[in-house]
Amino acid sequence: MTPFSPLLVVAVALVDADGRVLLQQRPPGKAMADLWEFPGGKVEPGETPEAALVRELEEELGIQAQASCLAPAAFASEALGDRHLLLLLYVCRKWTGVPEARHATALTWVRPAQMYALDMPPADLPLIGLLEALL
Ligand SMILES: Nc1nc2c([nH]c(=O)n2[C@@H]2O[C@H](COP(=O)(O)OP(=O)(O)OP(=O)(O)O)[C@@H](O)[C@H]2O)c(=O)[nH]1
């Protein structure tokens, strides 16, 4: 039997002072192009989830967050092509710098209830209600 080897991805709901959450739009030409997603990405071998998220925030948005400011919030478990995605969602309210779209097509700040109107990856859909309850 093939061992179960999930794709481990970390993502974060960056929450501003008005309770809005940052989403970024995936660029054209990539899988799930144009969908709105939480900043984040794959955990590399040997990395902790928190270190991976700190790295992704710097790479994707040019902001600095401390691992201690990343609060584990929810997770998603979803088939993704021939893999199985485990997505760990953190909440973060404190960072340094102003997010800029270094990889994404665009950024937007929205309340969780507004996410239902956006096209998001299937794994993210159950996370919207959880964020509504949480924030
Ligand atoms: N960052 C992020 N990834 C998500 C979300 N939802 C979701 O299904 N994913 C999936 O999780 C994986 C994230 O890995 P990634 O960001 O490193 O990969 P990528 O496809 O953008 O590009 P890459 O493999 O060229 O780096 C992608 O397959 C992405 O579609 C989300 O809300 N945020």
Structural commentary:
The protein has one domain: Nucleoside Triphosphate Pyrophosphohydrolase (Alpha-Beta Complex), CATH 3.90.79.10. It is built from two helices and seven strands. The strands form two sheets. Strands 4-1-6-5 form a four-stranded mixed β-sheet, with helices on both faces. It has a three-stranded antiparallel β-sheet with strand order 3-2-7, with no helix packed on it. It has helices at 49-61, 125-134; strands spanning 7-14, 21-25, 36-37, 40-42, 71-80, 83-92, 107-110. Strand 5 (71-80) and strand 6 form a beta hairpin. The mean pLDDT is 97. By secondary structure, the chain is an alpha+beta fold. The longest helix is centred in the middle third of the chain and has 13 residues, at 49-61. Bound molecules: 8-OXO-guanosine-5'-triphosphate. 8-OXO-guanosine-5'-triphosphate is lined by residues 9, 11, 30-32, 37-38, 40-42, 80, 85, 87, 121, 123-124. Keywords: DNA damage, DNA repair, DNA replication, Hydrolase, Magnesium, Metal-binding, Mutator protein. Belongs to the Nudix hydrolase family. Its cofactor is Mg(2+). InterPro entries: MutT-like, Nudix_hydrolase, NUDIX_hydrolase-like_dom_sf, NUDIX_hydrolase_CS, NUDIX_hydrolase_dom. Its EC number is 3.6.1.55.
